[in-house]
Amino acid sequence: MHLFLNSKQLKAEASMLLVAFIWGTTFVIVKNALADIGPFWFLALRFILAFLVLALLAFKNMQKIDFPTVIYGSVIGLFLFIGYTFQTIGLKYTTASNAGFITGLSVVLVPVIYSLMYRKKPETKTFLASLTALAGLFLLSFPTSSCRLNYGDLLVFICAIGFALHIILVDRYSYKHDPVAITGVQILFVGILSLLIAVPAEPFPPSLTCNAVYAILITSILATALAFLLQNGMQKYSTPTRFAIILTMEPVFAALAGYLWAGEMFSSRGLIGAGLILLSMLIAVLTPRIN
């Protein structure tokens, strides 16, 4: 029995687990930085700097950017921008717990949208893994039985759709282009759109604090340039649904980081939720790839 189907798929899914770890452990850093700089200025600086890092480290790959790469990269980048924008705006009107859970709905949206687009019925194990991850996200996001929905939750749901479509479109188009080139286009597209909103909508801070500078550097290099390069380069060896399920480990890593660095405690519901998310990831990894 092949538990891990092949080395490329194993490396791809291990890479996405690393991405979930990076995003989860940098959540606290970003949250602290947003107290000192507006969200769109933060996104603009983060993504533009990430593009410059890629351009400096892989200039030859960037020279492979052609018109089709710009078109497809911009389309993929648009949905990435939608995800980040509606998540940012939604957080003003809802709680972090609600936002974390609703963003995680992409784990269910990916197989549903993918099935509608390609008219393929998802495997039973894959759908079971998605529902298990969803249940785990709910328990982890809501440590008590209280759960109230509001206007901000609708905005964050749009964010979840954006992230789900981003994962699906990366699967559909990224393999046709150089991974560095199409990653660079996506990142620059998000940076430019964020800048266009930041300039008229947010005052630029008179001076950047150490927290803000540190967060911009860490997130631009690790959580943006490296993370999206891994996604665009490795996702072709797995499936969008499996990647979405693995990404649900992000809030688990975030909670673990909060426990280790900020002294935050896990509730019993949170521990069960984290266990369910881990179980869903194992189900996904042990599920053969849909060809």
Ordered list of secondary-structure elements with their pairings:
Blueprint: H1 7-25, H2 27-33, H3 39-57, H4 59-62, H5 67-90, H6 96-103, H7 106-118, H8 124-141, H9 151-173, H10 179-201, H11 210-234, H12 240-247, H13 249-261, H14 268-285
Q: Characterize the main sheet.
A: none
Helix content: over 70%
Uncertain segments of ≥5 residues (pLDDT<50)? none
Strand content: under 5%
Order of helices and strands: HHHHHHHHHHHHHH
Radius of gyration: 18 Å
The rounded distance between the terminal residues' Cα atoms is 18 Å
Tally the beta strands. Answer: 0
Query: Which structural class best describes the helix and strand composition?
Result: mainly alpha
Quickly count the helices: 14
Mean pLDDT: 84
What are the defining features of this structure?
EmrE-like, mainly alpha, 291 residues
3D structure, described in words:
It is found in: Cell membrane. Residues 13-141, 151-285 form the EamA domain. It is a multi-pass membrane protein. Its main location: membrane. Belongs to the EamA transporter family. This protein has one domain (7-285). The radius of gyration is 18 Å and the shape is globular. It is mainly alpha-helical and 291 residues long. 76% of the residues lie in helices and 0% in strands. Helix 1 (7-25) packs antiparallel against helix 11. The longest helix has 25 residues, at 210-234.
Entry summary:
Residues 13-141, 151-285 form the EamA domain. The protein has 291 residues and is mostly helical.
